[in-house]
Specification:
Length: about 280
C-alpha cells in the first residue's frame, strides 16, 4: 500500500473534507481541540466538501476545511506547509471574518457563535518546545478571559516526535497519522482502529482516480519548488549578511591603519581595493 502525504493541502482536504469524512473529522476535532466534558463534537456539517475541480489551479500552499458543529460553533481547520509572509495575520483575519459574517444587518449580537481556528503547520512557529499552542482574548495583566468566541489553536508537526511505540492518546495517533502517512506502506498496528483506519483508506492511493493522482503529484511538485525557493532566499540572505559584516569589519580595520600604513599595505591587509582605501583617507581628511 501507499498513502497520500496528508501534510499536502490536496490530500488533507480529501481525507478530512470529503463527504464520507464526517466520523473522521469528528474524532480528529475531539482529539486535537479537547473540548470540555459535555461539549464534545457529536455531529457536524462539512462546509464545501472536497471536489477535484475546486482544487485545480490553486496557487497557494494551504487549503482549509470548514465545519459547523451541531451547536452552531464554527471550526476552520487548516494545513500549512510553508511559513509564508502574512500567514499569522491570515489565520486571525479568517477567524474574525467567519465570526463577523454570521450576522445579517440588524440581527442581535447574541446570535453569534464561537469560531475556532485549528491550524497544523509543518514548520516551527513559536519559540517553545510545546507541540500545541492556544490563544484567546485575555486581559493583559491579570489574564482574565474576555470571551472564548474566537480561539486560535496551532499544532507544530516537527515538534511531535513520538514513535509508533510511544503513541498513547487518540491525539498522539492523529498527529502521527498526519506527519507520517505519506511515508508508510501499511497501517501501523497502533493506528488500526476506527476512524483512523478509515482515514488511511481514503488516503490509500490505490483508490484514487488518475486525475486525483495527477493532482496530488502537481501539488507535491509545487510545494517542493516553493520550499526550494524559500530555502535559497534564506541562504542568499545569510550570505549577503555575512558579506556586509566582513565589509564593515574591513573598513573599521582600514580606518585604524590609516595613520600608520600606506594605502597599498592597508589594501593588502584588509582585502579592500586601493580605490576604497583612498576614499577612506580622503574622508578622514
Amino acid at each position: 500500500m501507499h498513502f497520500l502525504d496528508v501534510k499536502t493541502d490536496y490530500a488533507f482536504k480529501k481525507v478530512f473534507g470529503s463527504a464520507e469524512s464526517k466520523p473522521i473529522l469528528i474524532s480528529f476535532l475531539n482529539a486535537l481541540i479537547g473540548f470540555p466534558e459535555g461539549r464534545e463534537v457529536t455531529d457536524l456539517t462539512i462546509v464545501d466538501p472536497y471536489q477535484i475541480p475546486l482544487l485545480q489551479g490553486m496557487k497557494d500552499t494551504y487549503v482549509d476545511v470548514k465545519a459547523t458543529l451541531a451547536d452552531g460553533r464554527e471550526v476552520i481547520i487548516e494545513m500549512q506547509v510553508l511559513n509564508v509572509k502574512g500567514f499569522e495575520q491570515r489565520i486571525l483575519y479568517n477567524a474574525a471574518k467567519s465570526y463577523s459574517r454570521q450576522l445579517r444587518e440588524g440581527e442581535d449580537y447574541t446570535l453569534l457563535n464561537p469560531v475556532i481556528a485549528l491550524t497544523l503547520v509543518d514548520f516551527a512557529l513559536f519559540e517553545t518546545e510545546a507541540v500545541c499552542s492556544r490563544f484567546l482574548l485575555l486581559e493583559k495583566e491579570r489574564f482574565i478571559q474576555y470571551r472564548d468566541d474566537i480561539e486560535l489553536i496551532f499544532f507544530e508537526l516537527p515538534k511531535f516526535t513520538k514513535p509508533e511505540a510511544g503513541l498513547q492518546t487518540i491525539q498522539d495517533k492523529w498527529l502521527f497519522f498526519i506527519r507520517n502517512a505519506g511515508r508508510l506502506s501499511m497501517v501501523p498496528q497502533a493506528l488500526d482502529e476506527a476512524p483512523i483506519r478509515e482515514a488511511f483508506a481514503i488516503a490509500n492511493t490505490a483508490g484514487l482516480s488518475p486525475e486525483e493522482l495527477e493532482q496530488q503529484e502537481r501539488r507535491h511538485d509545487f510545494i517542493r519548488l516553493q520550499r526550494g525557493a524559500h530555502d535559497k532566499a534564506f541562504e542568499d540572505g545569510l550570505a549577503a549578511g555575512e558579506a556586509r559584516g566582513k565589509q564593515a569589519k574591513a573598513l573599521t580595520v582600514a580606518r585604524n591603519l590609516l595613520p600608520i600604513l600606506g594605502d597599498a599595505a592597508i589594501a593588502s591587509a584588509t582585502g579592500l581595493s586601493l580605490e576604497a582605501v583612498a576614499r577612506l583617507r580622503t574622508e578622514a581628511g
